[in-house]
Amino acid sequence: MKNLAAMRLLCACSALVALFAGWNLAGAVHELGHAAATLALGGRVTSLKLWFFLGATNTATYGLSNSKGAITLLCGMLPTNALGVLALMVVPWHRLSAPVAVVSALFLFDFVLEAWPFAFEFALPPVANDSELFVLYSRCDDLLVSFIGLIILSGSLWIWFSRTRFLHRFYQTFLALVPMT
């Protein structure tokens, strides 16, 4: 029983660490995407904070037109989401044990969720987030932005669930941690 309790604790801690590490790495890739796009479009990056550990990340830029600013805003979400989807496609999920697959899937979950602010742009309160600023700078309709964001988000989630077989793998992991009577 002591071994089973230790295994449960290890699995729970591993899952939390994977979510937290994925969240921080996805945030760093997101901000690096903004910075790279800003530099590529002729702007200037004045500050860049990558690791947020429960704080906020931001890339302070200036010197760009509204259309270039809109492109820069997309370059936070799109490369991060694409990197997550690419990782989902190349990892040999069928070769991983159930606990390793669950932890790996949780790590990549934050990359897949990158599109959510765009998917729900029409419903979010008007705050200065990437999707709101993208609508402002690009003059796109917020329903169109939400529609495209929802397609990206739902497609990414479908790939996440289908490639990782997360529910099945989570169930397998759970069964291994429950004592059989």
Can you describe what's shown?
It is a single chain. With 181 residues, the protein is mostly helical. The protein is built from 7 helices and 2 strands, in the order αββαααααα. The chain has helices at 2-40, 66-90, 98-112, 116-119, 130-138, 142-164, 166-177, and strands at residues 44-49, 58-62. A two-stranded antiparallel ribbon has the order 1-2. α1 packs parallel to α3 and α2 (66-90) crosses α5 (130-138). The mean pLDDT is 84.
Question: Keywords for this structure?
Answer:
181 residues, mainly alpha, two-stranded antiparallel sheet, 7 helices, 2 strands, 70% helix
* Annotation field: number of helices: 7
Q: How do the strands of the widest beta sheet line up side by side?
A: 1-2
Helix content: over 70%
| Biggest sheet details | 2 strands, antiparallel
Order of helices and strands: HEEHHHHHH
Task: Give the end-to-end Cα distance, rounded to a whole number of Å.
Answer: 13 Å
Give the overall pLDDT as a whole number: 84
Give the uncertain stretches in residue-range form.
Answer: none
How large is the radius of gyration? 19 Å
- Which outline best applies? elongated
Number of strands: 2
Query: Which percent range describes the beta-strand content?
Result: 5-15%
Question: Helices and strands: which structural class?
Answer: mainly alpha
